[in-house]
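REQUEST
  id: r-88c1
  op: predict_structure
  target: Transcriptional regulator with XRE-family HTH domain
  payload:
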Amino acid sequence: MSSEYAKQLGAKLRAIRTQQGLSLHGVEEKSQGRWKAVVVGSYERGDRAVTVQRLAELADFYGVPVQELLPGTTPGGAAEPPPKLVLDLERLAHVPAEKAGPLQRYAATIQSQRGDYNGKVLSIRQDDLRTLAVIYDQSPSVLTEQLIGWGVLDADARRAVQHEDL
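RESPONSE
  id: r-88c1
  status: 200
  body:
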């Protein structure tokens, strides 16, 4: 394994660990000593080669797919990013509140958090769509079709949802 590849792999391992709020010693404690802090640290620094078997076990410990740890892969293994989900806020304002009230409040909250008040469009993330689907008690793909029907989302949003369903 090249040292550059090992460093990139280590950076991904460190990113996953820190996203989960774990220190190196926290990994050792959570794994009840199965993963020694010094060993995980050496993997993260690229000082020590990790076997495929150990990498798979570490991915399982972190609860992530192995491919998320491999350098040169994009999150989710996508070759190209899915299309952006862009809400048309001007059209949303014309959808009756009894239908779009939760979406309008959610969009207003995102605008407030971002300080983004252009009032024309608002980009939302896949996680936002999943949250809205829970609020509307629908699957993301069904909600996407409804939002396209309201004219609030562009038809390209279907590809983003299909990408998620893969």
